[in-house]
Amino acid sequence: MAIIMDGNGRWATRRLLPRAAGHKKGVDVLRSCVRHCGERGVRVLTVFAFSSENWNRPADEVSSLMELLAGALAREVPQLKAEGVRLHFVGDRAALSPKVRAGLEQAEADTACNDQLVLNVCFNYGGRWDIAQAAARLASRGESITEASLDSALALAHVPHPDLVIRTGGERRLSNFLLWQAGYAELYFSDKLWPEFDAAALDEAFADYASRERRFGKTSEQVLPAGEVAG
Ligand code: IPE
Ligand code: IPE
Ligand code: MG
């Protein structure tokens, strides 16, 4: 599953706090969410932490997000490692500072042997960037561009496409997240802001997902288990 963790800024502003305080709280909520996903048997969690477009925010907010990432890695990686979480950072690293880049590489190396839950953190990520970099990579190798070859050149080729994409914060848009991979995902929108998205809210999303009928282009009759009648 995948999550667009939106609403940190509004959560902070409503409490007369600086936006950075909302992002900080957002990291704590992500931490609990990873644990809860592990308990519920989720094997792959992909979260949107910083988009290609988020560079357009005020410079002090961008730098506080970079510092938050570096701090969270230093603090959380040992425990994530103990919990069997394997970290991957997905996105364009070229624009990140050498310090942040080194932190990402270290966190990936430290958790590389884990296999309980894969946590993909999309940072300086955009779905358009991913499709373009995949196509450029294939072109540079002289390979033809097919759905299968493009799929395997994407930055998230190491995991299956998500079944469920959750967006918190009330907006009903993808904001350039997983444009290719979410093509057949079930979408779930919550009006809760990310810092208030707790275990109960996550379970509500799972229950809603369980009630969906996934047809993948077929008819309802074709996908119903034998003996059940379409209602
Ligand atoms: C999501 O929360 C976190 C990032 C984009 C980094 P926002 O910061 O977008 O929060 P709102 O949407 O302004 O409330
Ligand atoms: C999407 O949220 C990016 C992340 C959650 C990291 P935004 O808050 O940046 O999205 P828009 O700009 O409102 O669409
Ligand atoms: Mg937002």
Question: Can you walk through the features of this model?
Answer:
The protein has one domain (2-211): Undecaprenyl pyrophosphate synthetase (3-Layer(aba) Sandwich), CATH 3.40.1180. The chain is 44% helix and 15% strand. It has helices spanning 8-14, 19-39, 59-82, 98-110, 127-140, 147-153, 199-210, 220-223, and strands spanning 2-4, 44-51, 85-90, 117-125, 164-167, 186-189. Helix 1 (8-14) packs across helix 2 and helix 3 (59-82) runs parallel beside helix 4 (98-110). The longest helix is centred in the N-terminal third of the chain and has 24 residues, at 59-82. The protein is globular and about 55 Å long. The structure holds 3-methylbut-3-enyl trihydrogen diphosphate (IPE) (2 copies) and magnesium ion. One 3-methylbut-3-enyl trihydrogen diphosphate binds at residues 4-6, 48-51, 53-54, 171, 173, 175.
Q: Which features does this protein show?
A:
globular; single chain; alpha/beta; six-stranded parallel sheet; binds 3-methylbut-3-enyl trihydrogen diphosphate
Short description:
With about 230 residues, the chain is α/β, with parallel strands linked by helices. It has helices spanning about 10-15, 20-40, 60-80, 100-110, 125-140, 145-155, 200-210, 220-225; strands at about 1-5, 45-50, 85-90, 115-125, 165, 185-190.
Q: Using the coordinates above, name the CATH class.
A: Alpha Beta
Report, as a whole number of angstroms, the end-to-end distance. Answer: 28 Å
**Total strand count, please?**
6
CATH homologous superfamily placement? Decaprenyl diphosphate synthase-like
Count of helix runs: 8
Helices and strands, in N-to-C order? EHHEHEHEHHEEHH
